[in-house]
Every structure is written in structure tokens, then in C-alpha cells.
Specification:
It is a single chain. This protein has 294 residues and is mainly α. The protein contains 12 helices and 7 strands.
Length: 294
């Protein structure tokens, strides 16, 4: 492949990653709606209602109904969401493997070994399930969601809210309203915006380690909200040595602690969708000749 063809392939890989991110955001939105439906059907509709008002009964039955409703959500919608995310992780690995297989001279990487490294780091077992105290399990833990919903519902019940008012309140509390994030979207915001992009760059770094690559393309395109840091680097070619100094760039405004900044994982900061794809030195020198002298 020519240097420009490799740069284009890197861009197309970034476009595909962007689509994966958009899809998981839609699935998270759908899961939010399903949680609302489950809580209304399996909990709210089974409470005692008199003259249009929910009667506050803070007893074992009420708590049991709430717990059963949330458990049903976890065993159906949440389980499906996790399975799809694990599938996306495998897809990110596949796309990286395909990129380096096409572009890296002397490609001799064990994809199975890279997957083992990823799964161990993320806390995914050999059956594709999340390890109880692993990274992904913690990232996708919905215990805070359960606690916040329970607190909201019981508070409204204590106030003797009307059935329809409580029904509407639960929906807005979970899903949000009029462009305002609800509890569910707030909880998963960091995951949906950053996790896939960080995982993609980390995976790319694993291939670079095994292939001995020290140059890369910073790709992903630009949108209206792209930061100056990413605008100046988009589609550019850099060395890892240059990247080590990125933390000193005054345009890197989306990083709170620059001493802990990891250019490979953090890139332009939160919400950054840019990818880092490593390339052979001869490709880097062809795309940016001055690198050869340095």
C-alpha cells in the first residue's frame, strides 16, 4: 500500500470506530427506556393506589417488588447490553488486527495473545463474561442507578404523589427530558464517550509494542466541537518521542492532571474520538519527510 492509502485506511478505521460509538450510545438510550418500562410495569403498577394516589407502604413487599423489578432489568436488558459491548470490544480488536496485517512489514503478531492481554486488563473471562471485580464490571456497575431510583421513588411515595405524576417522574428521572440528561445517561456518559476510543488506542499500542513501531497517524476527522489540540494534529504523523511532550501543549485543556496524562490513552482529553494508528518508519518519513532527519 502507498503511504496515502495507509493514511486513508487509518481514517476509514476511525470512521468505523465512530459508528460503533454511535451505536453503543443508541443501545444505552434504548436500555434507559427499557429500565423505565420495567420499573413501571413490575413495580409501580403493582403498588396500592387509592383515588389516583400511590399509598405509601414502606414494608417488605414494597422493597421486594422494587428489587425484583430491577433484577429483571439486569437479567434481560442489562445482560444484552453487556453482551453487545463485549462483541464491540472484539470488533475493535479485529479492526486493529486487520489494519496492521495490511500495513505492517513482517507482521507476526499473535491476535490471540493481544486478546488475552485485553481481556485480562478489562476483566473479561474466557466465556466473554465480566469478572466480578474487574475493570469493565466496575465501569458498568449500575448499583448507583438502583440506589438513586429507589431514593427518588420512595421520596415521592412518602409525599403521596399521584399515580400519573409518579409515573411521569420516574420516566423523566431515568431518561431525562427536553435535552436534559437523565440518571441513566449521566451514569453511562463517560463510558459511551470515552471507553471505546481509549480501548482502540490501547489495542493499537499493543500491536506497536510487538511490531516495534514508534511513529503513528493521529486520525479521526474534525467536527464543530473539535478542540484546537486535535485540529492541529488531525491526520498528522508523529513520533512517540514528540507525543511524550504533548502534556506541555497549552491547547491540551481537557486534561485535569497533566502529570498523569497518557498520550496514547488520553489523546485530546475527554470526549476525544481520535485514533492512534502506528505505522512503519518508511511510511512515516514519506508522509512527513522532516521526521527522517530528527
Amino acid at each position: 500500500m502507498t503511504p496515502e492509502e495507509i493514511r486513508k485506511l487509518s481514517y476509514l478505521k476511525a470512521v468505523k470506530l465512530e459508528k460503533l460509538i454511535e451505536q453503543v450510545e443508541k443501545r444505552i438510550g434504548k436500555a434507559s427506556s427499557e429500565l423505565t418500562k420495567t420499573m413501571l410495569k413490575e413495580f409501580l403498577q403493582k403498588l396500592t393506589v387509592e383515588q389516583g394516589r400511590v399509598i405509601a407502604q414502606f414494608n417488605r413487599r414494597t422493597l421486594t417488588l422494587f428489587n425484583q423489578a430491577f433484577k429483571q432489568y439486569q437479567e434481560t436488558t442489562k445482560a444484552n447490553l453487556i453482551n453487545s459491548i463485549v462483541g464491540d470490544i472484539d470488533s475493535i480488536l479485529d479492526d486493529n488486527d486487520a489494519f496492521y496485517k495490511q500495513t505492517a512489514p513482517g507482521y507476526d503478531v499473535s491476535k490471540a495473545e493481544i486478546k488475552m492481554i485485553l481481556d485480562r486488563r478489562l476483566g473479561i473471562d474466557e466465556k466473554g463474561k465480566l469478572v466480578k471485580h474487574g475493570y469493565m464490571n466496575g465501569l458498568l456497575d449500575d448499583a448507583p442507578i438502583r440506589s438513586e431510583i429507589q431514593r427518588f421513588v420512595f421520596k415521592e411515595m412518602f409525599r403521596a404523589s399521584g399515580f400519573e405524576s409518579l409515573k411521569k417522574g420516574i420516566k423523566e428521572f431515568i431518561e431525562g427530558d427536553k435535552g436534559k440528561f437523565g440518571l441513566f445517561q449521566k451514569h453511562y456518559k463517560t463510558f459511551s464517550y470515552d471507553a471505546y476510543a481509549q480501548l482502540n488506542s490501547f489495542t493499537s499500542g499493543q500491536y506497536a509494542n510487538q511490531l516495534g513501531m514508534y511513529h503513528f497517524i493521529y486520525n479521526g476527522g474534525l467536527i464543530e466541537t473539535s478542540r484546537a489540540f486535535c485540529k492541529s494534529r488531525n491526520a498528522g504523523v508523529f513520533s512517540t518521542e514528540e507525543a511524550e511532550n504533548w502534556k506541555n501543549d497549552e491547547d491540551l485543556v481537557a486534561i485535569e492532571d497533566k502529570e498523569r496524562y497518557n498520550w496514547l490513552i488520553d489523546r485530546g482529553g475527554y470526549n476525544c474520538r481520535h485514533s492512534i494508528d502506528f505505522i512503519a518508519p518508511e511510511i512515516a518519513f514519506a508522509l512527513r519527510p522532516e521526521l527522517k532527519d530528527s
